[in-house]
Amino acid sequence: MIDRQTGHLILAPSVCICAGDSLEMVAALVLGESTEVRDLHNGWQWLSTHNVPVGPHYVHFHFRFCQNRLQMVSVGISPERTALVGSWEQWSEGAERDRLKALKQWVREELGREGRFVWGTVTADYDEKSASSGITITDD
Q1: Which whole-number Å values give the CA distances from 106 to 79, 84, 113, in the listed order?
Q2: Comparing C-alpha atoms, which of 62, 60, 56, 65 is closest to residue 33?
Q3: Is the separation of the CB atoms in 61 and 32 below 8 Å?
Q4: Which residues pair with 65 in a beta bridge?
Q5: DSSP code per residue over 49-97
Q6: Helix (H), strand (E) at residue 6
């Protein structure tokens, strides 16, 4: 899914998302089950899409655009389709930290390691504020 040489997201043979792509270009791909655009009215816009089938996984993307250029992507990966409206009753910090381990392993399998590359930076982290784990791809 992440091209090791360029950092492009390759979701299918004819679907490639690159740093610098516009919000309109990415939105036109009609990825996933649910798409939402949030304009932060400060030059930043976010495009979120959920349950995008990529290989054996379902992927959630949060594309972040500054001045209509893709700058950052947050990625969540699940082996099964996830509910679009979740419940805190099913959440636990232990399970979320286990998810983080799985995401770190996925990054190692995709790219060999986390960290800085010539095209950008990739990390897998747990965010205590949002109580969630994810992969972040940043165009440097």
Answers
A1: 12, 23, 9
A2: 60
A3: yes
A4: 45, 70
A5: EEEEEETTEEEEEEEEEETTEEEEEEEEEESS---SS--GGG--HHHHH
A6: none
Per-residue pLDDT of the chain (140 residues; tens, 9 = 90+): 999 999 999 999 899 999 999 999 999 998 988 899 999 999 999 999 999 999 899 999 999 999 999 999 999 999 888 877 667 888 889 999 999 999 999 999 999 999 999 999 999 999 999 889 999 999 97
Cα end-to-end span (Å), the chain? 19
CA 43 remoteness from chain centre: 20
Q: Which residue has the tokens 């250029």?
A: 69
- What are 112's two structure tokens? 């060999």
